[in-house]
Amino acid sequence: MTQVPASLIIFDLNILIMKKLLLLISFAACSATSWAQTQVKIVTVIESIVPMGMGRSRLIETNESINPAGLTTNRTDGKTSEQGKVDRDEVKVENFSETKLLNLFSGVGINFQNVASNDAVVSTRLTQLLAEGWKIAHVTGGVESNGGQDDGQGIFLTRYILVK
Hints:
Layout: H1 6-36, E1 40-48, E2 57-62, H2 88-91, E3 96-101, E4 105-106, E5 109-110, H3 112-131, E6 135-144, E7 155-163
């Protein structure tokens, strides 16, 4: 049986440590790169509660981004705002997708077939986005409900915030 010199064993250990360190550095660099390239997408579903099909219900997705740097102003005293100097046209996007949905109310109340139809459209779109690699990070909802007989206004809004 031949004996391996201690210097070779130390050399082999150093190579093993260096390989592991190189692997760890590579992993960290890839993680940092993928984190820096995270994208956010918001899908907004607006469902009207205006009866008799008079409202407008839509699934909305923007197809472009806006740099908020030119839209942001700073306040120093809490009373004076420079927002009036920001042109509204700078805030608006021109390129967005709009998918028609059905209103939640019919002439006599909630139309459950419309609810199911909207669910089918929204779930199909979310399934497509998940297949494209998007992940749902957060869902938030809000409502401006019908305030009574004389109030013909109202929407139910859901925002799906996705990341990739």
